[in-house]
Specification:
The complex is a heterodimer of chains A (172) and B (347). With 172 residues, chain A is an alpha+beta fold. Chain A has five helices and five strands. Chain B contains twelve helices and two strands; from the N terminus they run αααββααααααααα. The chains are: A alpha+beta (172), B mainly alpha (347).
Chain lengths: 172, 347
């Protein structure tokens, strides 16, 4: 059934004499290939030369602190809910009187784990967080690991240090 | 030391050197293949293992040695091992008769740079190349695998089909030179002009058949991945596979050497004898020239691999039987006619 009258009927044309000889056509093909020998190569010599990443690149996660140095994460669980790969898990705890300078609100994440093997670096946790706590950095990768134990990132590797703050989100 | 013993020693040394050079060139052909493939595809080949990747063949060899040696349980044990060994044997045997250079003269004694100075060199090479098909057939049969068998059958039929046209184009060269000895063929080309000018059709036919004999693209149907997994070397791993792949590169080297010798003058450098150099220096320049030609043809093998799509099996058979053999016969008739005409007119 023809849906329009724009169909084109194509039939393979029989080869002419020179095409049947094969050799002239092969010579043309060889000419095209040899030109590529002298072009600039596109290989990037990693790790001496690294590729430029875009400003919205989604790299390694980081849990930020507020201006007073308190952890922003309140273990609400929205990031774990949003994660399509179910990579985030956490256990919450209540803040005691002495820990007022450590955490912003009464509820905090005692255990916060991201399984880097499950994570697909989609950034949905960053979009879901109501406290602007979790971000995906644009210049860090999750480095290579050589055992399953090394791949579950706990709070020690995710929370940013008090002195060396990371520039993420609108701070860039 | 008696003169016979000395001569035996010198001959063994020449054979040993030719053997070592063959293996060395085949080893670095594996690297050259990957580098040339990369460069023709706008990328660099392997260049991490040593400067410019020069230790890559060593890494490949070590990897193959460390892999597990296995023989499939349902395979024919003895034939499984014989297959790659036979492929390697026939590949290495053919490099013995190629004249790599003129003679070295050391106080009166002449040492030809050739493994064996036989006067049936061309016939020997042709016979050994015909034996080469056994390696593939035995490997495919011994694997007890339908795909390997199919690959081996295709390889065998391809090999014998293209041998005919190859033999006939060799006969034309033989008619011009008047001898089967490869050194005589080179000397004949030194005295007149290179055979590629006298036999352009024969050169094209012979090169095409050389591609088919080495199972190189565009004739690599026996070992292509898209159709047959690995063809006759599907079930092979570790060093047996290494021997199969290596024998393919040695075949490439020997084919390039034979093409250079038969059609491009071998170790001949035009106008070299008029420079009046020392005999041994001339020989060395001749050897270097021959290796230059051989390297160009090895590059040509790789260049064609990354340019042409492979032939379908029926197209391959058509080309071998219906195109190349009539062309080779035509070449023979024309060559014979021209030789007769020259003989009659020069009287």
């Amino acid at each position: 059934m023809q849906l329009s009258n724009r169909t084109k009927h194509l039939e393979p044309k029989p080869l002419n004499f020179w095409e049947r000889m094969y050799v002239p056509v092969i010579a043309q093909g060889l000419n095209i290939t040899i030109k590529h020998l002298f072009r600039k190569k596109v290989t990037i010599r990693y790790p001496e030369v690294k590729r430029e990443l875009s400003p919205v690149f989604r790299g390694l996660h980081i849990l930020k602190r507020d201006a007073q140095g308190r952890e922003r994460c309140t273990a609400c669980g929205l990031c774990a809910l949003a994660c399509p790969a179910e990579a985030i898990s956490m256990l919450s705890a209540e803040r005691t009187k002495d820990e007022k300078g450590l955490y912003r609100e009464e509820k905090y994440a005692a255990v916060y784990e991201i399984n880097m093997l499950r994570c697909i670096f989609c950034g949905l946790c960053e979009d879901a967080c109501p406290k602007a706590a979790i971000y995906l950095q644009k210049d860090r990768f999750a480095p290579a690991f050589f055992g399953r134990e090394q791949v579950i990132y706990g709070k020690d590797r995710l929370v940013e240090s008090v002195t060396n703050r990371a520039k993420v989100g609108l701070d860039q | 030391m008696s003169p016979e013993l000395l001569e035996l020693l010198v001959r063994s040394l020449v054979i040993f050197f030719i053997f070592a050079i063959t293996l060395l060139i085949a080893t670095y052909s594996t690297l050259a293949e990957r580098k040339v493939a990369g460069f023709l595809q706008d990328r660099l080949g392997p260049d991490r293992a040593g400067p410019f990747g020069l230790f890559q063949p060593l890494a490949d060899a070590v990897k193959l040695f460390f892999k597990e040696e296995f023989i499939p349980s349902a395979a024919n044990k003895w034939l499984f091992i014989v297959g790659p060994s036979l492929a390697m044997l026939t590949a290495l045997m053919s490099s013995a008769v190629i004249p790599f250079g003129n003679v070295f003269v050391f106080d009166g004694q002449e040492i030809p740079v050739q493994g064996m100075s036989v006067d049936i060199g061309l016939l020997y090479i042709f016979g050994v190349v015909s034996l080469g098909v056994y390696g593939l057939m035995i490997g495919g049969w011994a694997s007890n695998n339908k795909f390997s068998l199919l690959g081996a059958i295709r390889a065998a039929s391809q090999n014998i089909s293209y041998e005919l046209a190859m033999g006939m184009s060799i006969i034309a060269v033989l008619m011009l030179a008047g001898s089967l000895d490869l050194r005589e063929i080179v000397i004949d080309q030194q005295q007149s002009v290179w055979n590629v000018i006298r036999q352009p059709l024969g050169f094209i036919i012979f090169t095409t058949c050389a591609f088919a004999e080495c199972n190189r693209t565009p004739f690599d149907l026996p070992e292509c991945e898209q159709e047959l997994v690995g063809g006759y070397h599907t079930e092979y791993g570790s060093m047996k596979l290494g021997l199969y792949l290596f024998s393919e590169y040695i075949n490439m080297f020997v084919s390039s050497a034979v093409i250079s010798t038969l059609y491009f003058g071998g170790y001949d450098v035009p106008y070299l004898s008029q420079l009046g150099l020392d005999k041994n220096i001339e020989t060395i320049i001749g050897i270097a020239a021959l290796f230059g030609k051989i390297f160009f043809f090895i590059f040509f093998f790789m260049w064609v691999r990354w340019t042409l799509p492979r032939f379908r099996y029926d197209q391959l058979m058509n080309l071998g039987w219906k195109s190349l053999i009539p062309l080779a016969i035509l070449n023979l008739i024309i060559t014979g006619g021209v030789i007769l005409a020259f003989e009659n007119f020069s009287k």
